[in-house]
Amino acid sequence: MKPIVAAKTDVGRVRQGNEDSYLIKEPLFAVADGMGGHIAGDIASATAVDLIAERAEEKMPHTTAELAAIVRGANSAIWEKAASDPSLKGMGTTCTLALLEDHEIRIAHVGDSRAYLYRGDELSQVTEDHTLVGRMVKEGRLQPEEAERHPQRSIITRALGVDADVAVDELSVTVEEGDRLLLCSDGLTSMIGADDVSEVLSAQRDPHTAADELVARALEAGGEDNVTVVLIDIVDDSVAPAPAPADPATAAPVAAPQRETTEPDTPPPPAVDTGVHRVPSDEAAGWEERPRQRRWKGLVVTLVVLLLVAGAAFAAARYTLDNSFFIGADDSGTVTIFRGIPEEIAGLTLRESEETTRVSVDDLPEFLRSDVREGIKAESLEDARQKIEDLEERSRDREFTKPSSGGKNN
Ligand code: CA
Fold first, then answer.
1. Closest by alpha carbon to 75, among 185, 18, 158, 132?
2. DSSP string covering 104-166, please?
3. Helices and strands, counts by H and E, the chain
4. What's the rounded Cα separation, in Å, for the pair 94 and 116?
5. How do residues 21-59 score in pLDDT, each as one tens digit?
6. pLDDT tens for residues 271-316?
7. Ligand 1 center to residue 197 CA distance, Å?
């Protein structure tokens, strides 16, 4: 049983850098989606795939327990790196690691990247998302369709590098000729639905074309996040064409992770200087002729513009303050619902405490604390209260960050 593998990663249309990493080191495959800021997220996911590649070089894993041990090793490596460098504090990454051996796919998994099995026109998600909304779906408090578009869908409840230990899901699936295994970051699944993924996998039999189209569809849908796919086609050895590694990303075993940090199709970020310093030519000419008069006129115009801008900003701020809610921490570190926005605008704080809770930020798992301190936006007061309930639950139930033994979770 020999796979044909295709992979594609793209920075997307919004982000400045690509924090995803992936690994193809047959029969081992991985996707890691970094978080914690552009540089740190990139380092976290790269550290994970580098370490997996290194460990596999020393000794190729076979069992799910061995895969999970490698993932926990990656967790320690990232945790230690983050602890030794303040600029990397809070970084983390998802990791979905798959091994194809003996007609079986064995997986070790943490976070919200996904593994899907496509068999006979049917797509099934093999891994479980370790997210706040994933948990709400599991408890029947949210429909899967609602979860796909939920504003907090990217809050993950488990990641590598955010705690000294991590619970790793271990699973295995028997595979047959014709099966397709898809590993992807949430930049794919938060942009397009399972129906779209199915449609592409059904229509595009060539794995490279399929991988390209999956990424293209995520970009068309907005490309709000980095998107990475690794597609593994299980083919019959006797009829399989020799894999043609035209794309370096699909070349035979590579020790180094394949990562892209630039994307030629993405428009360059807007220039910092947007032309506000330009002086209209007629004004420039007038300045030469009547300097004093021009200067006064210029001052008056500037003053009027400033007043208008201030007035508009005030109206906008007032509107925003009255109609937005977020969950944050007050001065004493208590989780609080605020009316307003977490960001400061021109040094102004646009928030008022709306409701307070009994939960202290320190009671939350470490990786949720920074989310709360930065502010978790809510659609409405009702939505904020619902989220507080989830946080309260999390503050009571912290076992998922402190696995009691062995890290085996499912
Ligand atoms: Ca992502």
1. 158
2. EEEEEEESS-EEEEEETTEEEE-S---BHHHHHHHTTSS-HHHHHH-TTTT-BS--BTSSSS-
3. 11, 15
4. 16
5. 999 999 999 999 999 877 899 999 999 999 999 999 999
6. 333 222 222 233 333 333 334 455 556 666 677 777 777 766 656 6
7. 17
CA of 328 to the centre of ligand 1 (A): 23
Of 101, 82, 111, 189, the closest CA to residue 144 belongs to 189
pTM over the 0.85 mark: no
CA–CA dist 357, 337 (Å, integer): 8
Q: Specify the residue for token string 């033994």.
A: 405
> What is the identity of the amino acid at 288?
E
| DSSP conformation letters of 263-307 | -TTSPPPPPS--STTPPPHHHHHHHHH-HHHHHHHHHHHHHHHHH
Q: How many angstroms separate the alpha carbon of residue 318 from the centre of ligand 1?
A: 33
Q: Which residues of 331-345 are buried (b: 16+ CB within 10 A; e: fewer)?
A: eeebbbbbbbbbeee
Q: What's the CA-to-centroid distance between 185 and ligand 1, angstroms?
A: 6
Buried b vs exposed e over 286-300: b needs ≥16 C-beta within 10 Å? eeeeeeeebeeeeee
